[in-house]
Structures are given as structure tokens and as C-alpha cells.
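Sharing a chain and its predicted structure for anyone who wants a worked example. Both blocks are below, sequence first, C-alpha cells second.
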Amino acid sequence: MRMGIIGKKLGMTQIFTEAGLRIPVTVIKVDPNLVLDVKTVEKHGYNALQLAFDEQKASRLNSPDRGQFEKRGHSPRRFIRELRLRDEDKIEFTAGQEITASEVFKAGDPVDVTGTSKGKGFQGVMKRYNFAGFEQTHGNHEYFRHGGSIGCRLTPGRVVKGKKMAGHMGSRRVTVQNLKIVKIIPEDNIVLLSGGVPGAMNSLVVLRYAVKKRVYL
């Protein structure tokens, strides 16, 4: 079963191995996730778990949303995400149960991390798509960072959909695959991942067992 869990990105730091190697790691705060609902093929047509994360005040929720948590006997949570599972997976979790990172993963596991990338606002083609720009001399004037021609009046006679042009950059869903779990600190609900993950500090991320499993030695 390709299980997952919701966490919050705290930032990056570094740790050292016994051999003295430095490993850059991202610190993920993974407080216990509440299983809000369990969906099955027989009842809903597909298998999935609804997970809730990050406690908040009950006054910030409307009555229907607050009622979901009161029904389970838990305090309200800020975020709710649904993790789809395979139809043949046997779900061993029940509604109202809390899941910790150490119950789902162990050190050395490969994971895919999904988050929302940092917003960069409106950017030109050089920053957004790494265009080279135009030459700086030989009569070039006020055309140093432009994108060049975007089409032809003959064929196809229009601007092709998906043409790389200036526009809004960032603030989109991004998944980084096959990151290694370096260490899990259960007493602090902390997971250390090798490398960087998408998103700003305190942004929401979802960790799932890697779909393209890579074996780490």
C-alpha cells in the first residue's frame, strides 16, 4: 500500500554521518495525522484515506466542518487531504485513528514529496524559462531580455498554445520524487529528508512512499 502522511516544511539544515560526510536535509514537522474518513471500493467506488492535519480553534470552522471532528471525538484540524490508494489495497486504518510518521515510514525509505512552490510573481522569459536573451552589441537597442518571435503569419498563422512567454511564475503544485528519509525523530514528530522540497517555510507538504521505488544502501 502506497501510504502517505501530511506535514509542514520548517526549513533546511545539515547533518553529518559517522564518516564525516555532510548531508543537506529538509526538516518536516509531522504531527499525528487524524484519519477523518475511510473510503472503500464497495461503498465509494475507490479506496482512499482522508487525513486531517494541524490543530486549530473550533471557532474558525463552520458547523458542518466542526461536526466532522466532533463526530470523531478530536479537536478541529486546519488541513484535510485525501490520499488515493489502489483498489486492491487492504486498508488497516479506521476513522478517528491518529497516524504518526514512524508508523508509516522508516529511515532509508524513498518518498515523493508534493507541495506548492514559492510564488515569484510576473516574470520574463529569461527567469521563467532560462532563455539566453539577445546579443548585447551590434546595434541592439532595448531588446536584451525579450523572447523573440512568437509565431509566423504564414504557418500556422497563430501563436501556438503553450508557447513559452512571460507570465506568472511559481505557486503551483510540484512533486519531487525519490527523496531519502535520513532520520525520523518520533519524540519531536520530525522527519529529515535528504535534499530540498518545494514550498516556503511553514507550507504544507504531503509525503508518500515513492511510486518509482529507489533502493538506498
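Comments welcome. The CA atoms of residues 138 and 215 lie 54 Å apart.
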